[in-house]
Amino acid sequence: MPLTVLSIAFLAVYAIPILAPGLPSSVRQACEVANIVIWAVFGLEYVIRLGLSGNRPAFVRTHWFDLLVLVLPLLRPLRALRLITALKVLNRRTQALTRGRLAVYVAATTVLITVVGALAALDAERAAPDSSINTYPEALWWAIVTITTVGYGDYSPVTVEGRLVALTMMIGGIGLIGFVTGSLASWIVERIAADESADDNETTVTRSDLAGLRDEILQLRTELAALRSTSADAQAPPDRE
Amino acid sequence: MPLTVLSIAFLAVYAIPILAPGLPSSVRQACEVANIVIWAVFGLEYVIRLGLSGNRPAFVRTHWFDLLVLVLPLLRPLRALRLITALKVLNRRTQALTRGRLAVYVAATTVLITVVGALAALDAERAAPDSSINTYPEALWWAIVTITTVGYGDYSPVTVEGRLVALTMMIGGIGLIGFVTGSLASWIVERIAADESADDNETTVTRSDLAGLRDEILQLRTELAALRSTSADAQAPPDRE
Amino acid sequence: MPLTVLSIAFLAVYAIPILAPGLPSSVRQACEVANIVIWAVFGLEYVIRLGLSGNRPAFVRTHWFDLLVLVLPLLRPLRALRLITALKVLNRRTQALTRGRLAVYVAATTVLITVVGALAALDAERAAPDSSINTYPEALWWAIVTITTVGYGDYSPVTVEGRLVALTMMIGGIGLIGFVTGSLASWIVERIAADESADDNETTVTRSDLAGLRDEILQLRTELAALRSTSADAQAPPDRE
Amino acid sequence: MPLTVLSIAFLAVYAIPILAPGLPSSVRQACEVANIVIWAVFGLEYVIRLGLSGNRPAFVRTHWFDLLVLVLPLLRPLRALRLITALKVLNRRTQALTRGRLAVYVAATTVLITVVGALAALDAERAAPDSSINTYPEALWWAIVTITTVGYGDYSPVTVEGRLVALTMMIGGIGLIGFVTGSLASWIVERIAADESADDNETTVTRSDLAGLRDEILQLRTELAALRSTSADAQAPPDRE
């Protein structure tokens, strides 16, 4: 929970200098300092969790994404990737996964990647002389056109950092399309299967069918037990004779 | 039914001033008035349904799309979204969902989004000085290139409202691809499974298999009953002795 | 079979005047005449099949694609669509549908749509003054960029007929992506299910499991029959006594 | 294993003259010679394997991709396709296919196609006067934009060879999207099915259910055996009487 607050604070101090480039230099520096401090806190948190974990190599292996996000920010516009770890918290809670929850989670990730990616691209591109992405609305429009893989080409990044951001967004876009498609496919399969099951019901075996069978076997045993006792009675008289 | 007629009337008074910009100002104003009147009727219908519903917060929650469509038209080009609610009526009737009906429904929605989206984009873009979308054929071509996610970039919106329309169409396009893919995937899985079932039939359990088992258990009980009666006969003589 | 030959002849007389615009006018006219004659033969064939069919409205309904292809060629560049009916013949033969056969069929359709679509687009675009598609290699490159939905925008059609061809190809492209995805999805599901079945085997019920159960019940009956006969023997001596 | 080393050596002698066009002509010629020698080794290896195989036509049919890769390099920029055969080795080892291993394999293939495709496109395009792809970073950016099917159009190939490379990458891109989608679809289906099985558990038949049934039948047999022996005891005394 405190880490989520910290993530939002990180987004604020990251976004403010990008969105308001005319800020006095002291405010810009304060944001930069806050940015580095929050980064250090996340680094410390990672080191503490690493120290507390019993099996350290296993911890590094299963938390590789946390480490990547921690190291990547050396490239400044990629620092925004930290926000995605906040969404990972959501992921952990989805024990009973329904299609609706998955959709909300994917939609939230997509919006976050688009909004933050536009920030990062603007940060990287604004300084380039031949760049077409110079304002946040333009960056956001470019981000939407990219993540949906439409790619008009009216705006496109020209710097290495801007293109790394674009690569992240294109991968996100393919994942988004994949999720939407996969979700619809599973829904279609389910709906059509449900409609067909009205006819199919006669030929599938359920536990209640087996329960019926078991009941009959139990009756068989009861009858057998009755037979045994009468048989025993029948034997007893000859013994007494 | 009257609401469907009203939706078509809405499309007409929405489309006419866009498609025929040279109309006398009195006709344009009549269309604008009719547009607002129809909007008010839809608003009234929503309020009445809200009033009639027992659980009002639940009604707002389950009918969020109706409310969104009611509020969004404040942005004029987005008023066309109202038409999509007419398609929701279709959706309610699809109790027995087959792949064919789904395909017709998806195709109809796609055509409607494309035609109406082109109208809305033309309305938003025509006034902009540096816009490339100035006639309805151009808008329709742009809409097709966008919804299929091809995105040549020969035409692209430059206004905020035009880009919001584009965003709606890109989301529609991803949904369209997702549906086509999901539908084909479920069809492929089904066809291949059907062809394999000729060989597979030997290893699946059906109720008729269980019925065979139950028959044998019943015969067992019959024999046991017969055994019991002969055993009872066998006992009787010693009693009489 | 003669219709397939006729389809190939149709492609030839359709393609030759487009690919070799410098032909003497007499050759061009001969091709045009042959084109119309073949069109008439297909029309005649449709009318004969319609006449022979018992239920004519049903025939029109189930053969709507044949009728569409017959009527559409009035728009000259769309005449090429006839070739797709030749592929429908292939479709009829796929009784036992395997993933491999489907892939071959889809690949063949995609190549045909691309090659013929490039012809049709070149035919439509060459005459337009501001068109970028002026040679067959350019048209083919444009067709590839369109059907894969990449859409660079270095070449794009500007005429209504060229854009109708593009629409057909975009729909084909979405279908292509849908097929590839659906095919891979069904393959992945199958492969992973097959690998899991090694562990899963313990918990699924097959007919051989039921056969084992039935064997035990049969043994039970055999023993019961044996018991009955010994019980009958046991009764017999007292009777003789 | 030696073939994998040879493939990497092939990539090196292929890439060096492309990435460093300012090399002295002697080094360029050495690379070209090494390239041809490695090509000859691969050709020899194919011929030897063909000679050793019992059924030669079947060998050609099942190893068509190896032959294609061997013949295609006559078009120089396509020689890079040889590297994909190295990945086929990976494919052979995936006996127990899990979704994770498939993802690693697909990701590796995608990165290889992108990196090598950018090399091949740069090789083909650099010489063309009106080409926009003149440096390796530009070629790599173009390759990423193409394989994700975004297609901005800021860079696009103009030569026939460059466009053949683009075609290969677009097919790769569609395959990539298809794999991601199919993988997510199978994952979603599985996760949702797993969550539903908590409720569903009551109605599915497993082998443990059958085992319960079998236990009861075994008890039945045991009791029957006991009945038989007591019945035999009962008979014995009268015999002795």
From TrEMBL, chains A, B, C, D:
Transmembrane segments: 63-81, 102-122, 164-189
Stretches assigned to the Potassium channel domain: 119-189
Bilayer disposition of the protein: Multi-pass membrane protein
Organism superkingdom: Bacteria
SUPFAM superfamilies xrefs: Voltage-gated potassium channels
Native source organism of the sequence: Paractinoplanes aksuensis
Subcellular location field: Membrane
Main location as per UniProt: membrane
Keyword entries, A-Z: Ion channel, Ion transport, Membrane, Transmembrane, Transmembrane helix, Transport
Protein name, per record: Potassium channel family protein
GO biological process: monoatomic ion transmembrane transport
Gene3D superfamilies, sorted: 1.10.287.70, 1.20.5.110, Voltage-gated potassium channels. Chain C
Pfam families in alphabetical order: Ion_trans_2
